Amino acid sequence: MHEPPYLTELKPYGRALLDMGRRREEVLCLSGDLTRQCEIDLFQAELPGQFIHGGMAEANMMSMAGALARCGHIPFVHTFGVFATRRPYDQIANAIAYPNLPVRIIGFMPGVSTPGGPSHQAIDDVALMRALPNMTVIDLADAVEVAQVVDAIVDVPGPVYVRLKRGEIPVIFDDDHILSLDRAEVLVPGTDVALFASGMLLAAALGAARVLGEQGVSVSVINVPVIKPIDTATIQGAAAEAKVLITAENHSIIGGLGSAVAETVAEAGIGRPLRRIGLQDTFAEGSLSGPYLFEKYGLSTQNLIETAWTALGRTGPAPTAPAAAETGEYSPV
């Protein structure tokens, strides 16, 4: 893995989808009136015959994607995460998930990665998609995984939901890292705290583990890119070796990674204290600053450090995370 501050890449998903479209003509790209904002302007410009503009009518677009999948196509459907899940949920359930069709739903701007307030912040999308039978749910952490996700999901039987930050994506992993759809990965071993992270919170988890390690706290960091079906063996193994469990996600603590880990550990009879980092059953607000929202709603590296420190019963003030430079693009509405 690379060390922070991480380099960034621009539009790794858009380039990967275009490459797949060149190779496989059955791959179609659908846009919900957010073409440039979802990085698929690249696809539209080069492969207009495989591009469909669904307009600002997400429910109809999902029904259309289901019909196209029945005809032998592999539709990749794009819009912001909140419009890809909450708004067309009934159509996804009945036209895609129930018939178990190979539709790939790509939801951009997850959680509080958008300044648009509650109408644009997908803080419940993982919970909604997890509840649908047949649905695979993915939340990616870095540009290396994003660049691989199109190849990884194109032939998965049944529907897939992928949540992606857009704009500039951090490069956390080395080039030889491979995105697995059936295995979580222990990136850092530890015995005091098992810290399970998905998506945009992985960088914060790695930073927290580094600071805590300097103070003698042994933290394992587990990257969980696939929240459903979740890798129960790796989660149970890491949980059994730790004293305290923490989950970290850019999502509500209800129904997402925190709930999935809690269910997995409880069903295995592993009794450990669990702390869930995420939106605490609240809507967020709009902001011009991404770090402001992550700080306000407890999604920062410092919040992870303090949570681990207090959960272990350590006395005295928790160690302080180094100040992070505000680099990269904060996704506009």
What overall geometry do the principal axes of the alpha carbons give? Answer: globular
Structural class: alpha/beta
What can be said about the biggest beta sheet? 7 strands, mixed
Uncertain parts: 328-333
Number of strands: 14
CATH-assigned fold name of the largest domain: Rossmann fold
CATH superfamily of the largest domain: Thiamin diphosphate (ThDP)-binding fold, Pyr/PP domains
Tell me the strand percentage band.
15-25%
Given the structure, what is the number of helices? 12
Straight-line distance between termini: 31 Å
Mean pLDDT rating: 95
What is the CATH class of the largest domain? Alpha Beta
Order of helices and strands: EHEHEHEHHEHEHEEEEHEEHEHEHH
Q: What's the architecture of the largest domain in CATH terms?
A: 3-Layer(aba) Sandwich
- Please bin the fraction of helical residues: 25-40%
Strand order of the largest sheet: 3-2-4-5-7-6-12
Our count of domains comes out at: 2
Global Rg? 19 Å
Q: What keywords describe this structure?
A:
single chain, alpha/beta, Rossmann fold, 2 domains, 7-stranded mixed beta sheet, 5-stranded mixed beta sheet, 14 strands, disordered C terminus
